[in-house]
Amino acid sequence: MADERPNMPIPEETLNLLLERLEAVERHVADGRGLLEDSRRYFQELRQKELELLQKDLEIERLKRDLYYQKKLCEKEMEARSNALEEKCRFLEKDLEARITRERELFERRLAAEQGLWAERLAGEQEECARRLADAKRSEGFWARLIRMLTWS
């Protein structure tokens, strides 16, 4: 098919206008390509950041689980130590009670021995006093008899 339009020369002004428009379209396309490349780069960066964020979220979750596990271990250890300390306290209390009982018994034996010693000393001194008193009464009896004899005459 033949073009039915007549071949007319295009004025230079129209050509210049078309060239300007074509250059503007090329600049617009180039800008669009630049924006598209920027968009792709930003999209890649965004995906990379999302992956990093996801990895950090996973790391946070892992750390939370580890922390929970460590907390439970610590609680169990504290409970075990508490039980051990309570058991040790009960043992020490029983040991202390036994020591107090032994010391009390020892004290009571020593007290009884000391009381016996002083009771013997007291008995000895009472015997000595009774002997002296008997001697004094005998002596007094002699002197009293002598005085009576002297006064009777």
From TrEMBL:
<keyword id="KW-0175">Coiled coil</keyword>
<feature type="coiled-coil region">
    <location>
        <begin position="46"/>
        <end position="95"/>
    </location>
</feature>
<protein>
    <submittedName>
        <fullName>Uncharacterized protein</fullName>
    </submittedName>
</protein>
